[in-house]
């Protein structure tokens, strides 16, 4: 590689200006930085290769791709809309004083999802001649953040997009946020008297708020509360369909489901309601067979079954107006468009058409009017809009960078390994692996018996991993690797230590092994040469990611990554807008991450502005959630410092500085500030 040009300036700015495609790597030279031309092999790598490697064309859904600078680009309003550079958005957020990890919310993307949902249903209805219309409600549990709910209600206002709640706190939030008298509030979940009364209060305000009967036992309370408050309730009934969903949430449907009325219970409920003179309030029929339904066939079956119930009840004189098909519309997390759990084998438009056509057909057969279709789509509305960006704090490699060099007369086992290393070739890969394994086991046995010293053991381990790396490299990509070596390969993968907590930010990966797309948000003009797994900063061995989306949507145990140098290395974890942040917990007291809310704006230099930032949970706040109040722990620290001063362990000035540092530290974030804040003075010197 020959130096190409010498440029003055900071390499980071140069990279930002010219991109990484012309010059790499950057080394310090005289009076500036020498930018060296890339080698032939890496120049064959471009945005297209990266996009394919990380499968972004599949899961990106037109919102995410790779731009010519080798950064991830975001098109919040779809393929034909304006394009943002994710790296620039992160830099702007850092500029605003946020630290990594950062959760970015693309509010325009959220609006676009809402509009798309209504567009596909409108088109399907028009095409089919469906007369009942369509309304949606957003299930708040999928993402309760006020800004998210507000954005959905705002974007959905022309379509009377309403809300779905499953608990009292959600209902209290919904009552306040909901303004449009034509949009619905649907109350699901088990309800007590207070829940029911709060909903009836909403009725008094003129809201179209439905109490959905989930089990027979709650009906008497609903009826008596309505009578004593003098309110005509709007009632819905949840069906227990025989159709099951599929995938991870299959048990939400089917005959053993936790919620819903069987046919006999349904008839019983209607009799009770009739006796109380409230039968004209029964307007909605509801089902929900689970979330992330991968196969469209399950949806069709459930819709047909429910439509049949609707038709029969209409024929019996129950004036149902709404058929609510619940949630379940999935997200293609792995981009494979298949019926695998982390994918879906249908599009948004197909989903809408299948619901509309199947209900239409059954209504025609049965001679009943078309109901207004309601969906409780959550996941598919909000998953795409947020991206978690984490920085890599360090890389843990299995093979030590520096192998201790055996000098003098090396141990016999070391000599054997050196011999294997020298003679390994395409013809003896597996045999050499077995021999090396034997040597490693012998060494362990000798060590256990006290016959091996530490430095010899270190040499053997280092040589063993080196040899294995060499063997795997010789297998290369040409041949399929034998089963027994495949686990070794995963073992050899680097551990990229990332500034986040799986328990806070990716709870469905931890709990359900739900895969989420992960990729670097920059350096995408550079061929990634390492294979890695991500480990988080919790002290839990479960705090890692070892399932990734491969080029064709297959799940892979490692992720291709770049070697980390002194420059910051940022990874994006995508499609995390549904269920993740809101269900995250306080494991290790990490808590909420920093958030930036990004809006498109053609007048701004990068095409966007950051309207709002939400700081991460402070250490003081996290502690207070588990009953350590700041004054109490400060007092406890002061007592200890005073004691140390009295017994001459500390000088009084030292003691005061220590206390001040502790107090200031409480106001900081729980996440690690390694790398990003190296310019800052140490804790005790900050103002
Ligand atoms: C969770 C839930 C939803 C949301 O489902 P998604 O698959 O996220 O769209 C809708 N309705 C009910 C009753 C739910 O419990």
UniProtKB/TrEMBL annotation:
<comment type="function">
    <text>Catalyzes the biosynthesis of agmatine from arginine.</text>
</comment>
<dbReference type="GO" id="GO:0046872">
    <property type="term" value="F:metal ion binding"/>
</dbReference>
<keyword id="KW-0456">Lyase</keyword>
<keyword id="KW-0210">Decarboxylase</keyword>
<dbReference type="InterPro" id="IPR040634">
    <property type="entry name" value="Arg_decarb_HB"/>
</dbReference>
<keyword id="KW-0479">Metal-binding</keyword>
<dbReference type="GO" id="GO:0008295">
    <property type="term" value="P:spermidine biosynthetic process"/>
</dbReference>
<dbReference type="InterPro" id="IPR022653">
    <property type="entry name" value="De-COase2_pyr-phos_BS"/>
</dbReference>
<feature type="binding site">
    <location>
        <begin position="323"/>
        <end position="333"/>
    </location>
    <ligand>
        <name>substrate</name>
    </ligand>
</feature>
<keyword id="KW-0460">Magnesium</keyword>
<dbReference type="InterPro" id="IPR022644">
    <property type="entry name" value="De-COase2_N"/>
</dbReference>
<feature type="active site" description="Proton donor">
    <location>
        <position position="539"/>
    </location>
</feature>
<dbReference type="InterPro" id="IPR000183">
    <property type="entry name" value="Orn/DAP/Arg_de-COase"/>
</dbReference>
<dbReference type="Pfam" id="PF17810">
    <property type="entry name" value="Arg_decarb_HB"/>
</dbReference>
<dbReference type="Pfam" id="PF17944">
    <property type="entry name" value="Arg_decarbox_C"/>
</dbReference>
<keyword id="KW-0745">Spermidine biosynthesis</keyword>
<dbReference type="InterPro" id="IPR009006">
    <property type="entry name" value="Ala_racemase/Decarboxylase_C"/>
</dbReference>
<comment type="pathway">
    <text>Amine and polyamine biosynthesis; agmatine biosynthesis; agmatine from L-arginine: step 1/1.</text>
</comment>
<feature type="modified residue" description="N6-(pyridoxal phosphate)lysine">
    <location>
        <position position="141"/>
    </location>
</feature>
<dbReference type="InterPro" id="IPR002985">
    <property type="entry name" value="Arg_decrbxlase"/>
</dbReference>
<dbReference type="InterPro" id="IPR029066">
    <property type="entry name" value="PLP-binding_barrel"/>
</dbReference>
<protein>
    <recommendedName>
        <fullName>Biosynthetic arginine decarboxylase</fullName>
        <ecNumber>4.1.1.19</ecNumber>
    </recommendedName>
</protein>
<feature type="domain" description="Arginine decarboxylase C-terminal helical">
    <location>
        <begin position="619"/>
        <end position="672"/>
    </location>
</feature>
<dbReference type="Pfam" id="PF02784">
    <property type="entry name" value="Orn_Arg_deC_N"/>
</dbReference>
<dbReference type="GO" id="GO:0006527">
    <property type="term" value="P:L-arginine catabolic process"/>
</dbReference>
<keyword id="KW-0663">Pyridoxal phosphate</keyword>
<dbReference type="InterPro" id="IPR022657">
    <property type="entry name" value="De-COase2_CS"/>
</dbReference>
<dbReference type="GO" id="GO:0008792">
    <property type="term" value="F:arginine decarboxylase activity"/>
</dbReference>
<keyword id="KW-0620">Polyamine biosynthesis</keyword>
<feature type="domain" description="Arginine decarboxylase helical bundle">
    <location>
        <begin position="411"/>
        <end position="485"/>
    </location>
</feature>
<comment type="similarity">
    <text>Belongs to the Orn/Lys/Arg decarboxylase class-II family. SpeA subfamily.</text>
</comment>
<feature type="domain" description="Orn/DAP/Arg decarboxylase 2 N-terminal">
    <location>
        <begin position="119"/>
        <end position="383"/>
    </location>
</feature>
<dbReference type="InterPro" id="IPR041128">
    <property type="entry name" value="Arg_decarbox_C"/>
</dbReference>
């Amino acid at each position: 590689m020959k130096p190409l040009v010498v440029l003055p300036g900071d390499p980071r700015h140069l990279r930002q200006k010219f991109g990484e495609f012309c010059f790499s790597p950057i080394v310090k030279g005289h009076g500036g930085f020498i930018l060296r031309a890339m080698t032939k092999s890496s120049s064959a790598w471009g945005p297209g290769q990266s996009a394919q490697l990380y499968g972004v064309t599949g899961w990106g859904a037109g919102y995410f791709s790779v731009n010519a600078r080798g950064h991830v680009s975001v098109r919040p309003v779809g393929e034909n809309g304006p394009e943002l550079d994710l790296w620039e958005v992160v830099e702007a957020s850092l500029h605003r004083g946020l630290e990594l990890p950062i959760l970015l919310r693309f509010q325009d993307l959220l609006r676009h999802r809402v509009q798309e949902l209504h567009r596909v249903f409108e088109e399907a209805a028009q095409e089919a001649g469906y007369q009942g219309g369509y309304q949606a409600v957003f299930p708040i549990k999928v993402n309760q953040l006020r800004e998210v709910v507000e954005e959905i209600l705002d974007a959905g206002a022309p379509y009377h997009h309403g809300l779905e709640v499953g608990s009292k706190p959600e209902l209290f939030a919904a009552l306040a946020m909901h303004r449009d008298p034509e949009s619905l509030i649907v109350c699901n979940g088990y309800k007590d008297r207070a829940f029911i009364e709060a909903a009836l209060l909403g009725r008094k305000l003129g809201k179209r708020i439905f109490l959905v009967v989930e089990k027979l036992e709650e009906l008497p309370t609903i009826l008596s509360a309505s009578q004593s408050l003098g309110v005509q309730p709007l009632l819905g009934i949840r069906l227990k369909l025989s159709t099951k969903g599929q995938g991870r949430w299959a048990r939400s449907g089917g005959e053993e489901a936790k919620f819903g009325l069987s046919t006999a219970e349904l008839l019983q409920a209607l009799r009770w309601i009739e006796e109380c003179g409230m039968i004209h309030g029964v307007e909605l029929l509801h089902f929900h067979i689970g979330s992330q339904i991968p196969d469209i066939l399950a949806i069709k079956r459930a819709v047909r079954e429910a439509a049949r119930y609707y038709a029969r009840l209409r024929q019996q004189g129950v004036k149902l107006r709404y058929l609510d098909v619940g949630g379940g519309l999935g997200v293609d997390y792995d981009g494979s468009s298949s019926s695998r759990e982390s994918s879906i084998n249908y599009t948004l438009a197909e989903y809408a058409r299948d619901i509309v056509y199947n209900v239409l057909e059954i209504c025609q057969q049965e001679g009943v009017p078309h109901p207004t279709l309601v969906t409780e789509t959550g996941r598919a509305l909000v998953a795409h809009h947020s991206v978690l960006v984490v920085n890599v704090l360090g890389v843990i490699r299995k093979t030590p960078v520096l192998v201790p060099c055996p000098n003098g007369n090396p141990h016999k086992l070391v000599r054997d390994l050196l011999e294997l290393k020298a003679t390994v070739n395409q013809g003896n890969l597996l045999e050499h692996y077995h021999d090396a394994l034997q040597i490693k086991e012998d060494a362990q046995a000798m060590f256990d018996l006290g016959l091996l010293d530490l430095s010899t053991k270190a040499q053997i381990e280092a040589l063993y991993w080196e040899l294995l790396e060499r063997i795997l490299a010789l297998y290369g990509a040409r041949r399929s690797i034998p089963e027994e070596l495949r686990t070794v390969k995963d073992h050899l993968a680097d551990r990229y230590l990332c500034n986040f907590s799986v328990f806070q930010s990716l709870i469905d990966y931890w709990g359900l092994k739900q895969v989420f797309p992960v990729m670097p948000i920059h350096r995408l003009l550079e061929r990634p040469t390492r294979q890695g797994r991500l480990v988080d900063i919790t002290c839990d061995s479960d705090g890692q990611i070892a399932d990734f989306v491969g080029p064709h949507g297959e799940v892979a145990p490692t992720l291709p990554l770049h070697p980390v140098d002194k420059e910051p290395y940022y990874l994006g974890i995508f499609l995390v807008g549904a269920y993740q942040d809101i269900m995250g917990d306080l494991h290790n007291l990490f808590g909420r991450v920093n958030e930036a809310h990004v809006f498109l704006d053609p007048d701004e230099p990068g095409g966007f502005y950051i309207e709002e930032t939400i700081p991460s949970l402070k250490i003081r706040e996290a502690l207070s959630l588990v009953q350590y109040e700041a004054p109490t722990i400060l007092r406890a620290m002061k007592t200890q410092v005073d004691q140390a001063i009295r017994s001459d362990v500390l000088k009084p000035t030292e003691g005061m500085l220590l206390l001040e540092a502790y107090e200031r530290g409480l106001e900081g974030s729980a996440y690690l500030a390694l790398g990003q804040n190296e310019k800052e003075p140490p804790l005790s010197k900050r103002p």
